[in-house]
Write a structure and sequence with these properties.
This protein is mostly beta strands and about 70 residues long. Helices cover about 0% and strands about 55% of the residues.
């Protein structure tokens, strides 16, 4: 399972996969900005807040996480 998402006007792309982590990529140079880990099962949903300062993620483990973005 893998999901990619970006927000219009954002310089970041979010990738999730089977390793239960969320990777944030710089869309201009293709470099990994950070890898977020908190879930014990697959991340099924990720969304930026409208101002692109936070990322909200939901997982099959029944939890949601909120991260402040760089």
């Amino acid at each position: 399972y893998e999901m990619l998402r970006s927000l219009v006007g954002s310089e970041m792309c979010i990738e999730t996969g089977g390793d239960r982590s969320i990777a944030l990529w710089d869309m201009h140079n293709g470099k990994l900005l950070t890898k977020l880990t908190a879930h014990t099962n697959i991340v099924e949903s990720v969304h930026f807040t409208p101002d692109s300062t936070y990322l909200i993620a939901g997982s099959d483990d029944g939890t949601c996480s909120l991260w402040h973005l760089p």
